[in-house]
Structures are given as C-alpha cells and as structure tokens.
Write a structure and sequence with these properties.
The protein is 37% helix and 8% strand. With 145 residues, the chain is mainly α. It binds adenosine-5'-triphosphate and magnesium ion. The site of magnesium ion has 3 residues, from helix 2.
Length: 145
C-alpha cells in the first residue's frame, strides 16, 4: 500500500500531541507562573507549602504552567513529581509512582503497607521538600487502595 509510505501529513508538528510536550514559549501566563512560584517558594527554605488548586477552562495551559514551575523548582533542589491521576487510578498507585520517581526503583505491586511506602519515600527525601502535582485530579480514583 503506497499510502503508508507517503510523507504527506496534515500536521506541521506532531510533537505537540506528545503528553510530555512543553511549548518553547508560554504565552500570557506570567501572572499564573508568578502566583504559583510564589505559593511554592517556601519549599526553597525547607518548608512545605500549602495545597494549591489550579483551575481554568480546558487547554488554557494549566498543565503547561505547572510543569514549567516544577522544572524550575528542581533547579533549587526541591523534589518534584508530576502525576496524571486518571492513569494511576488508586492512591496506592499514586504513592508507588512517587516512590519510583524519588527512589528510582519500582516498589512491589502488593504486600507493602502504605505506611512503609511513605516512610521509605521520607527516607529518600531526607531534608528536601517534595512537591507533588496531581494533574486532572477531578478524573481521579475512587478506591482508596
Ligand atoms: N499559554 C500558552 N502558551 C503556549 N502554549 C500553550 C499555552 N496554553 C496552552 N498551550 C498549549 O496548548 C496545549 C494544551 O495546554 P495544557 O495541556 O497545558 O492545558 P490544560 O489547561 O492543562 O488543559 P486541560 O484542561 O485539558 O487539562 C498544550 O499543547 C500547550 O503546549
Ligand atoms: Mg491539563
């Protein structure tokens, strides 16, 4: 089938469909970036910031802004984890993913109590503050484990 080999495409840049894609310039979001950075600033001094809820119409840059600010925080030795809630589904999966991101290894799928997982995450963090972004939390899990 010749059509499979053709290089015609409707898309100028298919990379933008990648969930990991971040635009080179974030337009018209300076206020939101600054507000978020200000709210998270205590983390630079080892203090846990309060919870922050980012809301707004679809596709207006909520995820983009959060990822951008998390990347910046990493430069200041703050531990950050970005998670998409709909694909993780359960709170145990969320903590497993945090464990994996912080500790660099996958925890056992079962048999490890949640408190042990949390304690090991704490050990890995040491004095660092951990910022967790729970994206699309409104599509989140219903079960507790
Ligand atoms: N201010 C912006 N400047 C440049 N690109 C943007 C901006 N806002 C959104 N985009 C682009 O639009 C797309 C959607 O953005 P993003 O996923 O951050 O929106 P969202 O608000 O998180 O959407 P949703 O409500 O669906 O979660 C992405 O490709 C992103 O790069
Ligand atoms: Mg989003």
């Amino acid at each position: 089938m010749e059509i499979l080999w053709g290089d015609e495409t409707l898309f100028r840049n298919e990379e933008v469909f990648d969930p990991e894609y971040l635009p080179q310039a974030i337009l018209h979001r300076d206020t939101q970036i600054n507000d978020l950075a200000l709210s998270l600033r205590p983390a630079l001094n080892g203090i846990s910031p309060g919870h922050i809820l980012c809301v707004g119409p679809p596709s207006t840059g909520k995820t983009t802004v959060v990822k951008y600010v998390l990347e910046k925080l990493e430069e200041y030795d703050v531990a950050t984890v970005y998670l998409r809630c709909p694909i993780l589904r359960t709170s145990y999966n969320v903590f497993s993913k945090i464990f994996e991101e912080i500790g660099g290894k996958v925890p056992p799928q079962r048999g490890v109590p949640l408190f042990k997982l949390l304690s090991e995450i704490g050990d890995q963090l040491g004095q660092r503050v951990l910022i967790v972004a729970l994206d699309d939390i409104n599509f989140s899990y219903r079960k507790t484990c």
